[in-house]
Amino acid sequence: MDLLIKNGTIVTASEMFEADVAVKDGKIAAIGRNLEMTARKVVDVSGKLVLPGAIDVHTHMAMPFGGTVSADSYLAGTRAAACGGVTTIFDYPVQHAGETILGLIASKKEVLEKEACVDYAFHCCITDLNHGEILKEMEAAVKEGITSFKCFMVYKKEGMMVDDGTLVRLLLRAKELGAMINVHAENPDLIDFNIENYLKEGKTSAWYHYLSRPEFVEAEADKRAVHWARHLNAPVYLVHMADKEGLKACIKAKAAGASVYIETCPQYLEFTCDVYKREDGRNFVCSPPMKGKESRDALWTALKAGLIDTVATDHCPFQSYEKDWGKDDFTKIPNGCAGVENLYPYMLDAANAGKLSFERVVEVCASNPAKIFGCGSKGSVTVGKDADLVIYDRNKDFTISANNMHSDCDHTIWEGKKLHGYPVQTYLRGTLIYDNGAFTGMPGQGRYLKRKARKASRGGGAQ
Ligand code: URP
Ligand code: ZN
Ligand code: ZN
Fold first, then answer.
1. Bridge partners of 310?
2. Which of 64, 165, 431, 437 has the most CB atoms lying inside 10 A of its own CB?
3. Average pLDDT, integer, range 401-423
4. CATH (domain of 166)
């Protein structure tokens, strides 16, 4: 064997049990009590948990956005991922008018082959159908393992929004190809109307970022997306769910049999819109914004009840000087926050505190992302899977600070957050890439993850 991890408590989505884990050629080769085998490296993890590496299915590395480029390169962002126990990221390259999907993905792969410290996959954002060419090209993209595409129902002025007609075409085409459409659901016209009025009234602080896109602005688009998914019988994945009313509509559609998947993020579980009243409120500006306490509570209730499918980060950091562009005008603040290194530690701290089970954290951060997005080799500590493993010390105290993060961003919205329990090691396909506070991996070590399509089906399928 290459690696033998002894005496840990293994956590899967359904159980916790004491066992050793043996690794050969990057795969989990055996799991059992007191495994009697020789290995090149033996690690005793008595008293610690052994978890599957988290899969952060929502990141924006090096993304041109908000008049700049998000602060983490693929190298810095995947280094931070490794140090937070994330062994696979799903990034969101954005296709712009006239661009082909395959050309865009090829250019991203070229960078990631050199820079990726963890494994990676892509959801491709489509902003323009190029007179229908993209609908054709989607088939080749699916064959390349890109089996999910994103549509922004917002960012109209930024030229990234797709209109309703385009969204319908994409939902149906994705269904036909066994792919899925992910949506960022907010109503752009309501937002623009609110922004115009607030600016006219001289209301320019970060608080008005929230007030221009409050609960009902997100809920309207959530409802529109699931209404169509249901009636077109097409799967849809709602990214970064943050409001109670939309959440309820999605849960109702799920119960009625629609293929609706819900993602939320740690920032919506932790913070409320009150952060926008803080002096540094601009640092928390992301879209959708954090909502009121009722929404935060509803997200926790749904998460605990098994009604939210995934927790991911929407990692999209900007430096302080860039956030400062919007000191006197919230519309000039680049939208997005860092989070990839905080996902697993935050969720596991909640489990450690008894807020939800460790199994449920594994389910939403690793097993469900793998299942929903067609990554058969990932997401569970099971024989035959990739040996993407995280060793977690339930007794280690950790206070998050920009100084102990591994991103290139100079600040974090999680500054000062105290966690009880913290990951102490991360293994990527059996190789140690994070060890007690230090990144020990190599850029270029991460591999492209070619994903499997879902079952394809034809026709409008109106219900
Ligand atoms: O504010 C955010 N979320 N920035 C990243 C782009 C997006 O909307 O996901
Ligand atoms: Zn978004
Ligand atoms: Zn995003």
1. 263
2. 431
3. 98
4. 3.20.20.140
Judged by DSSP in three states, 34 sits in coil
The answer on 35 and 101 residing in a single domain is: no
Band of the pLDDT at 457, cuts 50, 70, 90? Answer: confident
Whether residues 167 and 302 fall in one domain = yes
Q: pLDDT tens-digit profile of 190-204?
A: 999 999 999 999 999
Q: Span 368-385, mean pLDDT?
A: 98
Name which residue sits closest to atom 6 of ligand 1, judged by CA: 336
> pTM of whole model > 0.90?
yes
Pair 150, 239: CB distance under 8 Å: yes
| Ligand 1 centroid distance, CA of 110 (Å) | 24
Residues 131 and 32 in one domain: no
Number of domains observed in the structure of the chain = 2
User: What is the residue with the minimal CA distance to atom 8 of ligand 1?
Assistant: 287
Pocket test for ligand 1, best of 335, 337, 340 (most atoms within 8 A of CB): 335
Q: Ligand 1 atom closest to Cα of 286?
A: 1
* Residue 462 is assigned to a structural domain of this protein: no
Q: What is the CATH number of the domain that holds 406?
A: 2.30.40.10
Q: Does residue 447 sit within a domain?
A: no
With respect to residue 449, please indicate whether it lies within any of the assigned structural domains: no
Residue nearest atom 4 of ligand 1, based on CA coordinates? 336
Domain that holds residue 80: 54-372
* Domain assignment present for 463: no
Pocket of ligand 1 (CB under 6 A): 60, 184, 286-287, 314, 316, 335-336
Assess contact for 176 and 456: CB atoms under 8 A: yes
Best mutation site among 59, 240, 263, 286 for ligand 1, i.e. most ligand atoms within 8 A of its Cβ?
A: 286
pLDDT band at 418 (very low <50, low <70, confident <90, very high): very high
pLDDT in tens, 245-275: 999 999 999 999 999 999 999 999 999 999 9
Please tell me the residue having the least CA distance from ligand 1 atom 9.
314
Summarised one tens digit per residue, pLDDT across range 47-57 is: 999 999 999 99
